[in-house]
């Protein structure tokens, strides 16, 4: 454990050292940087190797807890003469103090703002940008105060070869490059491009939170840009990146059809990267040692496929690895020869071992060298750590989604499944939250934990695979055999249990962190309970029991602290300790019920009962000796009794406010009372009545103020219904927030009030419609055909235009335009569509509130399903039908009155066909469909169809004295009816054909009647007059009124004479 902490501190100091060096170099105070032999740029310098003798002293010279953060001010920059040198270098810069020379030192009299030109020269680094000094002027950099996460360690054993976190990180990056190369996205950047790159770290040092910095990786697109981001995030030097890329590409030369991700990467890199590509021998030896260690760990110590009879191969492999390492100590000639022979022999042994089939793949299909447990998850952990911003450990990098998608390409190499990914990612996020205290990371960790599938959700192959992942961990002189999930989740559970076991101390302000920590504890606990060993050992069977244990543990710990404080306070105030203890216990319980219980009660509704009862018991234990020894009324009794009584009253109040009436009494009876009684009362029904009156007032006001404009292009209903739902939901929330007992009758009262509110809303909307009598003009007086020209006195009276509605009614009709009527319909539909959600929400919340009473739950559910909002649904649907009918009627008889009702078939059918109405009807229909919601489209269009057919019948049967039809017009009328029918069917995009056909039937009968000769119509009318007395229709299937109107519009003398003689109908003016 101590070794792991030391390594972590060492890595932290390495990062801080890079920041410090970049900070110094950015100010142009350093005149020259001397490169070590073999180094091309600062990226090639390895400080740990060049200054190995003093690295420990450099890191451990300061105390990490008291050192504080780096300087927040910018380094001094020349003012008058700008330096042509770029002040930022590569992020992976690593130099020691002996490699930096300051040619000219500043004297005591010199100012740091001196205008003297100073120079920084580095070989092979050119083309610095002139505007970099402006960046230095605004440099601001701050680091978080990181928490100690030493107790949060994975339950995994260390590696036998001693590979470090840096080794894992660098190997993980090599795997990432190979996975990217398998998709053809691996290229080697040119030297010129490398020289032009600037330090992303130093750029970020110079930005404020509000500044937007475009990094070099953002200039790149696609896989190339993401890989560059990953390189920076994983702190890989450019030199190492280029070496690895070139080595992987060289390894594929001559291997047609070979995927890069099926290579034995450490072996191929050993073969393809030579000693000359490194700046010094120590760097190369360290690199080679890492590759050899990875081969031993991946192929021997943690092999994905067991050896069985191939155990001899493992011994040979270890011998070859040792010889390879030994070759570096031999003279160059013999050493190179031994190295070549060893690599050839290593390939002959290692490749067949790695290409053995496992987990269902074929021989050679997957190279099993990095997918053995637990090497694979440690490598994948290093890849996942790249999602954090290198300058703000508590934030995810902007490219997190692209990085995670890229990491999926490594699953094949590392043997990662979705369950393993979600678990590792959750661990990485959670540990980073513990280090940084960033709540956003905790929420991300919760999201990943929730994605981990339960055992029954996993496939049989994955269940078998996860069952095979286990390792033995030594701790406190004990060994434990842990499964994969236990290794990753047990540390999280232990941390969460520790925090929640004394939440009064660790989470004093409650806040959202506690709620999320509870979620973590519950989710992790549920996953671990499926592990057979832990399921048998689990003391707490349910989440509720676990929450209760947290409450009990924290209350006990807090009470012990109070006892210590009270002893000190009693001496200072000269008050009795029990009186002070009661006062402090009330404060503790008050804080517990107001800060912590609202969070805990989400999973344990009686959490406050547990804490109150336990606190009551703990105080009672301390109080009992005092009560037993009381014989007379003393000052101590006067002091202690009121305080104890107040505490007991507060405890009972807390219990009553958290429980239903009967349950609270049961809990109170269990208390060993201090001779105290409790009084409780509830006014829920009165509150409901007052709230319902408030709702009705809001409904009326909302409808009165409504202008029937859509809320937005996407939300095409009016604002009034949104307001009504807002006040209703607010009332429901307040209802369920009441911490008082509630009966079913009170809930039904709330339902009835809400139901009535929506009925009132539907009625108020429908009442705003004008009367159909004000829209449809009166039916003209029947007249018969006349041939003479001229008007008689009685005809003048008959031909006066029907009176239009008065001005006030016309304004009311015109205000309700078609779009506004559509918004009304949308609002009513929104009202009825949201009722189910409101109903389910109330039912679910009520059931949750009363789930402990099973008999009540059953009757409640039946009542809620039977008669909750049926009245609202009935009235809203009736209002929708009424508005649909009104909309169609208004369009045909008011908006299109002139072209349709007044002028269709004038002066004759042939001269005024229905085609002229198709265009205005199409405009109206498009307007309707643009605004109306999809579920109401057919209903409102059906209303328009009905109104159109009514208008057509009006024109044919009651068209007035200026319309005449002959038997020859019947064919034209049939054609027009077909045009109308096909218009509404719209080639299958409109109304269903069957619906339109059913509506058209009544008009088709009339058009057919127009095709009969006048004599046939007269005879049928005579017959129909007698048949109607017997309740039957005529031979032609029409009633007398229809036949009479057809004859009145028949343009021949025979019909005119018959009507004059039989019905005394006057002649028309036409």
UniProtKB/TrEMBL annotation:
PROSITE patterns: MHD1, MHD2. It comes from the Eukaryota. Residues 911-1021 form the MHD2 domain. Residues 638-779 form the MHD1 domain. Residues 858-867 have a biased composition (Basic and acidic residues). Residues 846-867 are annotated as: Disordered. Residues 847-857 have a biased composition (Basic residues). Transmembrane segments: none annotated. This is Protein unc-13 homolog. It comes from Escallonia rubra.
């Amino acid at each position: 454990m101590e070794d792991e902490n030391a390594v972590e501190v060492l890595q932290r100091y390495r990062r801080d050292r890079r920041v410090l060096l970049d900070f110094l170099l950015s100010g142009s105070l350093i005149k020259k940087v001397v490169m070590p032999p073999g180094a091309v740029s600062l990226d090639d310098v390895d400080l740990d190797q060049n200054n190995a003798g003093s690295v420990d002293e450099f890191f451990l010279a300061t105390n990490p807890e008291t050192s504080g953060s780096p300087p927040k001010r910018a380094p001094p920059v020349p003012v008058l003469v700008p330096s042509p040198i770029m002040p930022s270098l590569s992020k992976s810069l690593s130099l020691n103090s002996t490699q930096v020379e300051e040619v000219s030192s500043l004297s005591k009299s010199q100012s740091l703002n001196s205008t003297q030109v100073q120079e920084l020269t580095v070989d092979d680094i050119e083309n610095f940008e002139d505007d970099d000094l402006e960046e230095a002027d605004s440099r601001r950099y701050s680091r978080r105060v990181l928490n100690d996460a030493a107790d949060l360690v994975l339950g995994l054993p260390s590696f036998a070869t001693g590979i470090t976190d840096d080794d894992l990180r660098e190997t993980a990056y090599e795997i990432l490059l190979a996975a990217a190369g398998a998709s053809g996205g691996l290229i080697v950047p040119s030297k010129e491009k490398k020289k032009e790159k600037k330090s992303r770290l130093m750029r970020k040092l110079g930005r404020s939170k509000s500044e937007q910095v475009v990094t070099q990786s953002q200039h790149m697109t696609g896989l190339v840009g993401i890989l560059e981001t990953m390189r920076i995030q994983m702190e890989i030097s450019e030199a190492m990146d280029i070496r690895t890329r070139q080595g992987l590409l060289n390894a594929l030369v001559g291997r047609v059809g070979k995927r890069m991700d099926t290579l034995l990467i450490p072996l191929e890199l050993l073969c393809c990267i030579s000693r000359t590509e490194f700046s010094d021998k120590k760097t190369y030896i360290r690199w080679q040692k890492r590759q050899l260690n990875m081969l031993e760990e991946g192929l021997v110590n943690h092999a994905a496929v067991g050896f069985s009879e191939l155990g001899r191969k493992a011994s040979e492999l270890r011998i070859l690895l040792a010889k390879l390492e030994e070759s570096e100590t031999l003279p160059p000639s013999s050493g190179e020869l031994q190295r070549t022979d060893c690599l050839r022999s290593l390939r002959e042994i290692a490749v067949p071992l790695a290409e053995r089939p496992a987990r269902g793949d074929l021989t050679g299909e997957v190279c099993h060298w990095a997918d053995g447990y637990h090497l694979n998850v440690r490598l994948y952990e290093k890849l996942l750590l790249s999602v954090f911003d290198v300058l703000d450990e508590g934030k995810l990098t902007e490219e997190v989604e692209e990085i995670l998608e890229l990491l999926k390409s490594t699953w094949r190499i590392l043997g990662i499944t979705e369950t393993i990914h979600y678990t590792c990612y959750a661990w990485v996020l959670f540990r980073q939250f513990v280090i940084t205290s960033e709540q956003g990371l905790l929420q991300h960790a919760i999201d990943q934990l929730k994605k981990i599938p339960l055992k029954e959700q996993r496939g049989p192959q994955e269940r078998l695979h996860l069952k095979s992942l286990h390792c033995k961990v030594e701790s406190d002189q004990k060994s434990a055999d842990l499964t994969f999930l236990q290794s990753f989740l047990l540390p999280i559970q232990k941390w969460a249990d520790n925090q929640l076991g004394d939440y009064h101390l660790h989470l004093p302000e409650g806040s959202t962190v506690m709620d999320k920590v509870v979620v973590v504890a519950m989710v992790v606990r549920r996953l671990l309970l499926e592990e057979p060993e832990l399921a048998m050992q689990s003391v707490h069977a349910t989440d509720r029991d676990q929450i209760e244990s947290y409450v009990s543990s924290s209350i006990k710990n807090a009470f012990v602290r109070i006892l210590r404080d009270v002893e000190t306070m009693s001496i200072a105030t000269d008050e009795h300790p029990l009186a002070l203890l009661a006062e402090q216990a009330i404060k503790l319980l008050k804080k517990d019920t107001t800060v912590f219980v609202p969070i805990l009660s989400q999973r344990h509704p009686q959490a406050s009962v547990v804490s109150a009862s336990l606190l009551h018991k703990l105080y009672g234990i301390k109080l009992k000796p005092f009560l037993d020894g009381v014989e007379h009324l003393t000052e101590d009794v006067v002091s202690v009794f009121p305080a104890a009584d107040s505490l007991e009253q507060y405890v009972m109040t807390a219990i009553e406010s958290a429980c239903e009436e009967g349950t609270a009494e049961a809990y109170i009876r269990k208390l060993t009372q201090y001779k105290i009684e409790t009084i409780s009362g509830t006014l829920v029904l009165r509150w409901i009545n007052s709230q319902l009156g408030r709702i009705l007032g809001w409904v009326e006001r909302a409808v009165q103020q409504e202008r029937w404009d859509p809320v937005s292009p996407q939300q095409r209903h009016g604002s009034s219904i949104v307001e009504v739902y807002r006040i209703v939901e607010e009332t429901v929330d307040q209802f369920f927030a009441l911490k008082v007992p509630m009966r079913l009758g009170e809930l039904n009262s709330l339902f009835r009030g809400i139901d009535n509110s929506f009925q009132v809303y539907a009625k108020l909307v429908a009442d705003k419609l004008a009367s159909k009598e004000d829209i449809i003009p009166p039916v003209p007086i029947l007249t018969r055909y006349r041939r003479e020209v001229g008007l008689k006195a009685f005809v003048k009276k008959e031909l006066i235009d029907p009176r239009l509605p008065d001005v006030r009614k016309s304004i009311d009709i015109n205000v309700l335009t078609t779009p506004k009527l559509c918004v009304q319909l949308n609002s009513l539909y929104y009202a009825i569509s949201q009722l189910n959600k409101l109903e389910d929400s109330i039912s679910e919340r009520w059931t949750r509130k009363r789930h402990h009473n099973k008999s009540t739950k059953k009757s409640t559910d039946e009542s809620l399903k039977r008669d909750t909002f049926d009245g609202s649904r009935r009235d809203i649907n009736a209002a929708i039908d009424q508005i649909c009918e009104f909309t169609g009627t208004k369009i045909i008889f008011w908006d299109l009155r002139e072209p349709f009702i007044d002028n269709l078939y004038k002066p004759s059918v042939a001269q005024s066909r229905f085609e002229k109405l198709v265009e205005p009807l199409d405009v109206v229909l498009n307007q309707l469909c643009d605004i109306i919601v999809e579920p109401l489209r057919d209903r409102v269009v059906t209303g328009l169809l009905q109104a159109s057919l009514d208008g057509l019948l009006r024109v044919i049967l009651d068209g007035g004295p200026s319309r005449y039809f002959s038997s020859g017009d019947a064919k034209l009328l049939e054609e027009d009816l077909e045009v109308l029918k096909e218009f509404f069917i719209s080639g299958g995009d409109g109304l269903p054909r069957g619906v339109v056909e059913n509506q058209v039937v009544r008009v088709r009968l009339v058009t057919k009647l127009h095709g009969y000769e006048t004599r046939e119509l007269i005879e049928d009318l005579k017959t129909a007059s007698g048949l109607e007395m017997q309740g039957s229709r005529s031979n032609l299937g029409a009633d007398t009124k229809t036949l009479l109107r057809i004859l009145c519009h028949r343009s021949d003398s025979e019909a005119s004479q018959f009507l004059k003689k039989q019905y005394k109908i006057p002649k028309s003016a036409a």
